[in-house]
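Q: Hi! First time doing this. I have a protein sequence and I read that you can turn it into a structure. Is that right? Here it is:
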Amino acid sequence: MPDTQPKVFISYSWSNQQHKDRVREWAEHLITDGVQVVMDVFDLKEGDDKYAYMERMVNDDSVTHVLLFCDSRYAEKADKQKGSSGVGTESQIISSELYSQVQQSKFIPIFCEFKADGNPCAPVFLKTRFGIDFSTFEKANENWEQLVRLLYGKPLYIKPELGKPPAYITNNAPTPISPITVKFETLKVALLADRKGISIYRDDFFSACFETADQLRVRQQPDENTFPDQVVETCAKLKLVRNAIVDWVRLEGSIVPAHDFSDLLHAVLEKLSELKSRPTEVSSFNDSWFTAHGIFAYESFLYMVAELLRIKAYVALHDVFSTHYLNPKPERSINDRFSTFRCFWTPTADFLQAPLKPRPNERFKNVVGEILHRQADRSDIPFSKLIEAELLVMLMVVLPPFPDYGHWYPHTFIYGSYSDNDEFFIRATQHRFFNDLAVITGIQAADEIRALATQGIDNYSTRWHDSGIRGLWDKLNMERLDSLK
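A: Yes, that's right. Below is the predicted 3D structure, encoded as structure tokens:
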């Protein structure tokens, strides 16, 4: 209970019996909500001086508010009254003189009637006051909580405490809005409005994304002393593009038909593959120059898989894993023109230990995983969902065709508990959720997935000398797939 309960005096006109009954019912409702009510039908006794009674209530410090239930008759009588001995005869109508005697915030106009021009019927001295609309039963019900909150001094919205100036105010260097953000919002509006020429808005958005990423590619020999820090800084800068791509997946993946969306995804992924390779104009280079963009492509791919799982775009996921991607021109040869999704993996980069600043006399076990862990700042896709996404990737790695197409070592696994990050596979214990996994893999029977995964894990661990891959079986919930209805 509040420290003090409000006490109100009700002022109203005796316009007709229906209006009097409505005001009385509202008074009774206030009483049931814990508000003390003073009203003539309850408190004015035979022989009482009605004018003195009204003036006493208005000036009584224990009365926290005066509710003025205004209709056309109330406005007419109040405007005619000249104090307690004026023309008005109804004791419950406040005059302008009485209104001016106390703090005006004590008075709350309740508008029970409106004119044809949309203005409330109220005395002249209330014309500029905000009031509460009780003109219909629906409006009274809708605005009842507003009135009660006002009486108790418990507004629905409370102004927050004054904070500190934002960084872009205190920072001398202005931070312009990214073209990526502008282009994405334009595309979003066009999609939701179903405008024509969506491809134009989409091309503008991706041009902004990929031009931003391309400008950060290394094209000349970097300073070896500062290059590790440069790589870490570039990874952080590329988060903007990563997040934009994820937001696009969420937007169009929920709107565009599955087949068309898969085509769009394919084009985006091929562009990611191109960005992680050397620029075509660079002929003399070291592979380490492109480390940041390799991490960016790997990170973005995992985020895209995680988001596709989140929006249940299982057909699109099947296409992501089953299709081939045209190799970038610098990496293309007659016998090596296409790659599978494994092209988005990136090797670790131990030369980044120093800028990541491990503890004294310690080293990070997985530098790429550490960077992804630090950059996992999206509340909608926490790091645990990246691990879940990479579990799915590893399943697709060991299923046919076997790992003849390349290696994939999961950088994220070391930074999380597997049992906490495999909800998708735990749910696949039930048949209806296993069907989702069947769509992704293209394999309809759990026994067939188990048989192929067994052979794939054996082949993978032998080929890549990776004994840790054998623990994948339990992480993928293989024994229990499709075992419950």
